[in-house]
């Protein structure tokens, strides 16, 4: 614990039942939310609530909400594909269950796409939306190549399982620049390079791969997003370079006609991971700036 973080009571709740059960956490007292300091909902996809512990602890001026997306964390598992619209409905149900009116929302990666879907379906749920590095292919110059790679990854998952598919996913999301047309001509990477097994265990419950290709293919409602004015912030990490998610942020912002807001660090800069340190304190400071 540093002087910039705060420890508060965390309560855990579930909205819905069966396959539609969604687990969420509230830090602090929801009664402390106000129109100019609403509850702040932090989420990603498929990263669950544990990925936001460092960022959430940086805020002491409002209640903080985190959750586990459908198919991830403490929620029921499954094998069917999951769409941004389903995630948007889940987010809406959580916000309604909070009962404190519109929230401020920060969505990152797949969560950023799900936040855009929420804004399309339930615009009144959110006061200020911060959309951080949505991996959207729609406006990319290499859109067709990106979608071909994702389709190949999905086939690999169906035919060979988790290790083989994730071994293709990791270098793809780390690629700094346009996806070349001959990208798929290269040999498939060995899962052992990433500490994973090539043995197919038969499961197909990986939430990341269940979210594709729907997350990548999602098409935003440009006119509806333009209408939000400065209540919509499209963000990218200053260290993210030309990775696909950062390019997705920039091309989506250009289509809407808004500037890209720089955030510290990289795609996961709000947390710290082994060998991939972020800047949670700097990230929180920047998030406060755009929300205020």
TrEMBL record:
Pfam family, one: Abhydrolase_1
InterPro entries given in the database record: AB_hydrolase_1, AB_hydrolase_fold
Chain ranges of the AB hydrolase-1 domain: 54-162
SUPFAM superfamilies referenced in this protein's UniProt entry, alphabetically: alpha/beta-Hydrolases
One term of GO molecular function: hydrolase activity
Keywords: Hydrolase
Keyword hit for Transport: no
Signal peptide location: none
Record flagged with keyword Hydrolase: yes
Name of this chain's protein: Alpha/beta hydrolase
């Amino acid at each position: 614990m540093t002087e910039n973080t705060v420890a508060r009571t965390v309560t855990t709740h579930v909205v819905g039942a069966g396959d539609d059960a969604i687990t969420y956490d509230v830090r602090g007292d929801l009664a402390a939310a106000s129109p100019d300091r609403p509850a702040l909902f932090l989420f990603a996809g498929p990263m669950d609530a544990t990925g936001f512990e460092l960022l959430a602890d940086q805020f002491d001026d409002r209640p903080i909400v985190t959750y586990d997306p459908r198919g991830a964390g403490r929620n029921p598992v499954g094998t069917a594909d999951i769409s941004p619209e389903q995630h948007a409905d889940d987010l809406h149900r959580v916000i309604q269950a909070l009962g404190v009116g519109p929230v401020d929302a920060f969505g990152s990666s797949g969560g950023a796409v799900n936040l855009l879907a929420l804004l399309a379906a339930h615009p009144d749920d959110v006061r200020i939306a911060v959309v951080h590095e949505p991996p959207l292919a729609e406006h990319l110059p290499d859109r067709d190549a990106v979608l071909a790679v994702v389709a190949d990854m999905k086939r690999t998952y169906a035919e060979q399982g988790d290790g083989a598919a994730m071994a293709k996913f990791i270098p793809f999301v780390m690629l700094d620049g346009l996806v070349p047309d001959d990208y798929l001509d290269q040999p498939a990477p060995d899962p052992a390079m990433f500490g994973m097994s090539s043995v197919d265990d038969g499961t197909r419950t990986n939430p990341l791969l269940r979210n594709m290709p729907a997350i990548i293919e999602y098409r935003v409602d440009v006119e509806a997003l333009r209408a939000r004015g400065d209540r919509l912030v499209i963000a990218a990490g200053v260290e993210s370079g030309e990775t696909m998610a950062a390019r997705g942020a920039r091309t989506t912002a250009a289509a809407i006609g808004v500037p890209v807001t720089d955030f510290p660090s990289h795609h996961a800069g709000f947390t710290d991971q082994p060998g991939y340190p972020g800047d949670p304190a700097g990230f929180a400071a920047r998030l406060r700036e755009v929300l205020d």
